[in-house]
Design goal:
Layout: E1 12-15, H1 25-38, H2 45-50, H3 56-65, H4 72-89, H5 97-107, E2 110-114, H6 119-127, E3 134-138, H7 151-161, E4 172-176, H8 179-188, E5 191-194, E6 208-209, H9 218-226
Parallel strand pairs: 1-2, 1-4, 2-3, 4-5, 5-6
Helix pairs in contact: 1-4, 3-4, 4-6
Pfam families: HAD_2 (PF13419)
Protein name: HAD family phosphatase
Length: 245
């Protein structure tokens, strides 16, 4: 049975977007292929996998190395525009995401979106949901350092604290699907659930591995917060081979 709202240790869930709420990775990969090929280059599956979960600035740099003769900002805008157009045609929801968002809303648990996609795409996805589930949106264009650095997750907690000063990192759970995203969440000190999608993730005691969000509930998330911290510090990100310093 779920704990009453006033006694629940879970105050907020911090959601990654691409690959966790929506299956937009194929849209990003298609946009990358089109952009590289338009500049006379080739783009492999292996190269595309390197960009999953990364900041757009990092991704744009690798696309430049692949032959895209544009400035970083132009590459980001081109990719984002292509993915927004795809989402406008069809939103590819991930299994269980909308159902869990609704259950959290009914239970009074706050949600934050923590994505390396920029504002235009994040707002498009959020607008496609039936309710305003997210109290704050932390997007790639609102932070100085992208995932795997923990800044985005720490920023989300800080913004949530503006209206609930008693909320702390130990009251939160992060949901992620990628190596950089899991590294960022773990490094922030937030209890982390990895739901691998495009790229496999290893088992490790510093985060919880779920096959899917389908069938998952508020009770499952509360149990993670009740379990307490497990080696949560900045060095924890190194479990995935991605130090944040």
């Amino acid at each position: 049975m779920r704990l009453p709202a006033e006694s629940s240790p879970l105050k907020a869930v911090l959601w990654d977007m691409d690959g966790t709420i929506v299956d937009t990775e194929p849209y990003w990969i298609a946009a990358e292929h089109a952009l590289v090929e338009a500049h006379g280059g080739t783009w492999s599956h292996e190269q595309a996998m390197q960009l999953v979960g990364q900041s757009l600035t990092f991704s744009a740099g690798l696309l430049q190395e692949a032959g895209v003769d544009l400035e970083i900002r132009e590459i980001i805008d081109t990719l984002t525009g292509a993915v927004v157009s795809s989402v406008q045609r069809q939103v590819p929801w991930r299994p269980g995401a909308r159902e869990l968002l609704e259950e959290l809303h009914v239970a009074g648990v706050r949600c934050a979106l923590v994505t390396m996609s920029e504002g235009p795409l994040a707002r498009q996805v959020v607008a496609s949901l039936p309710r305003q589930y997210f109290d704050v949106l932390v997007t790639g264009d609102t932070v100085a350092q992208g995932k795997p650095h923990p800044e985005a997750y720490l920023t989300a907690v800080e913004w949530l604290q503006d209206t609930d000063p008693e909320l702390g990192i130990h009251h939160c759970v992060a949901l992620e699907d990628s190596v950089p995203g899991v590294a960022a969440a773990v490094a922030s000190g937030v209890a982390t659930v990895a739901i691998p999608h495009i790229v496999p993730l290893p088992e490790d005691e510093r985060y919880t591995l779920w096959d899917s969000l389908s069938g998952r509930s508020v009770t499952d998330l509360e149990a993670l917060v009740l379990a307490g911290p497990v080696l949560r510090d900045s060095a924890a990100a190194q479990v995935l081979g991605m130090p944040v310093d």
